[in-house]
Amino acid sequence: MLLLKCLFVSSPAGWGYAWGCEVGRTEPRRPRLVVTHGDLRGRVIEVPQADVVIGRHPDSDVVLESPYVSRSHLRVRQGADGTWVTDLRTVGGTTVNGVRIKVPTLLNDGDEVCLGGLTLAYDAGDVTPAIPGEQENPRVPGPRRR
Fold this sequence. Notes:
Helices cover about 0% and strands about 40% of the residues.
């Protein structure tokens, strides 16, 4: 992602002006889950490229110390087509937008994931999932010659 920062300044005496632009690169904001309701409100969970297990057990990739979260509660996987969540056969279950999930479920920006009394809002970040069959850099045709 490109970042363009421009500055326009007048001199203190008012006799001249200066301006300049700087072009830089920023890293795209990664997908994340933000706890919006519950004991851990405000906690941010970054979604890496690999699988992540969220649970109460200290061996979980992301530990949520909440009494209603199972030891291994939820698997989050970032794939080429987006972010997927899978309930790990917990007693309390996991819901996405109020619907209990039993199979891997693709998240959309703004979806709410509830587990163990916590509500997590999904923020897709700046990463755009690939659309199957779409070229990475499609060729744009130039003007037609006669």
